[in-house]
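Single-chain item
Fold in token form
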Amino acid sequence: MTVVVTGASGHLGINLVRALVADKRPVRVLVHVNHKTLEGLGVEIVQGNVSDIESLNRAFDGADVVYHLAGRISLLKSDWPLVEKVNVLGTRNVIEACRRTGVKRLVHFSSIHALQQEPLDTPVDESRPLVEGRGYPPYDRSKAAGQREVRTAVTEGLDAVIVNPTGVFGPYDYQPSYFGLALLLMANGRMPALINGGFDWVDARDVAQGAMLAEKKAPAGAEYLLSGHWVSMPDIAVAMKEISDAAITGFVCPMPLALFGAPFATAYSRLLKQRAYYTKVSLNALKSNHNISHDKATSEFGYQPRPFKETLRDTLQWYAQNGDIKCHLK
């Protein structure tokens, strides 16, 4: 039973492909640019992207299951055209290609950012409405719009399930991810200050396993939050000091001061043609709901995220093996 993965060269995609290969599934991957991270895994590689429906048709031909992970992440308020092209129109193309090629099940990867987190004093579960309106960042709105596309397709007969991971981190973070970049800066003593905020972080390997369980056991149209553990940035620094000799700053920047400085940091990143990770969007995300429930996934197919500190150790170990960090694990 051939399985196709879009976005396979991304952080979560790589972990999913490895899990599928370990499960002895025949895997075909759709790769846009770089497939070096997938070499040696014994997967079939198809060049293409979600904006090119003909490449999707080629990739999906003869496949029983498609995992749709390809997406554009942005922490800027000005990136709607970019995220819409990939996260909304690309998802629409994936749905159409599934129909044309007779794919039996689509597993769509949305995001916690697609769901409204307010009120913050009430746990977030699958009943939360999708975000809508220009008051939300473009990335959040695009993931919500992509999720609506899949919901509509389900009402029209497509067999699809949706998973909403929280903040993903873990090994095989080659690019690295935005959170991975923050961990690298902290581990290498280059983080000038810690922000007084946090997020729900989940192991990429646990998300992959959760999605595979959803593929096999969930009814058509089901949606699942795949969350982990809410941990603040200062507490991440404490945990990193407990498991390594990293020289991490102890200065915690108040959120109002961080928000004031964000536009200047964003402009500086653009000037240096670097990814902007210190933005108003990323800071506001750190004012997140502390309770993201995975009870539905746990009760229906046994999803259970591993402890945060275990993932942190494995991640730092992987970075160390790749020469990305200078500190040593205890």
Observations:
- The chain has a mean pLDDT of 93.
